[in-house]
Design goal:
Strand order of the largest sheet: 3-2-1-30
Number of helices: 0
Order of helices and strands: EEEEEEEEEEEEEEEEEEEEEEEEEEEEEE
Radius of gyration: 20 Å
Shape: globular
Strand content: over 45%
Helix content: under 10%
């Protein structure tokens, strides 16, 4: 029975491993301010309760103990164990990203036509590391505990202060007492970097091909190797690991799911799923056996990564009083 909850569902009947813990997700249009909600078990079904409204984006810390989220007014951090919330940074911000060790984070704010990139610690003490008069809209990616990279400009020639900024330029930012900037020709765009290593994936700027990148902290001298798939889409790492998962959609009715062995980069455990994803976001649990997927326009799914079985958390969301709009899973607390 569901008691004292915002909404509850009838019980789906998956036959594989069971969902455990709780998932925080966004539901609604983030550009207008989505709801930060929490999915939990309720007897044989599930609850979905709203924690706060008006959230533009959210990012979980690498150790999954804290959640940064931005509204139109501020950046706040939520303690995922006790639920306490602390305001960190005032003003409308975007591009929230944690540094790999989780002691600080980056964010961007617009000021007129300029974009300002900041780095802040977990108390909210912030430092401006880049003031870009060209109004960069791409988000920065952490490639080491003290290094970020972003595409500063793609297109026609522009200005970098008093000097011209070449088209297709990436900038590597090294933080410290004084931030150091190094512009380099844009050869690659970061697809992902595992927080537990210096390895990840990039896409070539000329062909968009997926490539395996080792020593991403040495971005300027990267020499990436081809990945064992060409049309695949990276969907995330298994929690607390660097096992990367991918999907491919070879037909109009099925999706192929697999992960790569991070020691030899060979495909592992390919699984066929009878589901076509529209614009899905995924979380993979630490055992790599289950995924939670939020799929447009209104589906929240539990997926067995071995059998390919797909089970909606809410079989009839409207009848259960559940409101799901383009759900985006953010963090899965498994305990």
């Amino acid at each position: 029975m569901c008691v004292l909850v915002a909404a509850c569902s009838e019980a789906p009947k998956p036959t594989g491993p069971k969902f455990r813990g709780r998932v925080l997700l966004l539901t609604g249009d983030p550009s207008q301010g989505a709801a930060l909600a929490e999915l939990t078990q309720a007897g044989d079904g599930y609850n979905l309760s709203t924690l706060t409204a008006g959230v533009k984006e959210a990012a979980a810390s690498p150790d999954q103990t804290r959640l940064l989220y931005a509204t139109k007014d501020e950046i706040s951090v939520r303690d995922l164990a006790g639920g306490s919330v602390t305001s960190l940074v005032k003003g409308e911000s975007a591009c929230l990203a944690w540094a790999p060790e989780g002691s600080h984070f980056s964010y961007q704010q617009r000021s007129g036509n300029s974009t300002k990139l900041y780095v802040a610690d977990v108390t909210g003490k912030a430092k401006l590391v880049l003031d870009d008069p060209n109004g960069t809209t791409s988000c920065a990616h952490w490639i080491a505990k003290d290094r970020l990279v972003l595409d500063r400009f793609v297109g026609l020639s522009s200005k970098k202060g008093a000097e011209p900024l070449k088209p297709n330029t990436s900038t590597v930012v090294t933080t410290g007492e004084t931030a150091k900037l190094k512009d380099t020709s844009r050869k690659w765009s970061i697809e992902s970097v595992c927080a537990k290593s210096n390895e990840g994936f990039v896409r070539s700027a000329d062909q968009g091909r997926l490539l395996i990148a080792k020593n991403t902290d040495r971005f300027e001298s990267l020499d990436p190797a081809p990945a064992p798939c060409t049309e695949c889409e990276f969907i995330g790492y298994a929690a607390q690991s660097c096992a990367p998962f991918f999907i491919e959609q070879p037909t109009s009715t099925t999706t192929e799911l697999f992960f790569l062995n991070p020691t030899n980069w060979q495909k592992q455990r390919p699984t066929s799923i009878t589901w076509i994803f529209a614009d899905a976001k995924f979380l993979i649990n630490s055992s790599a056996r289950l995924m939670v997927a939020g799929d447009a326009p209104d589906k929240l799914l539990l997926i067995d990564t071995e059998s390919g079985a797909v089970t909606p958390f809410f079989q009839n969301a409207k009848a259960s009083g559940i409101v799901l709009v383009s759900p985006i899973p953010i963090v899965w607390i498994e305990k």
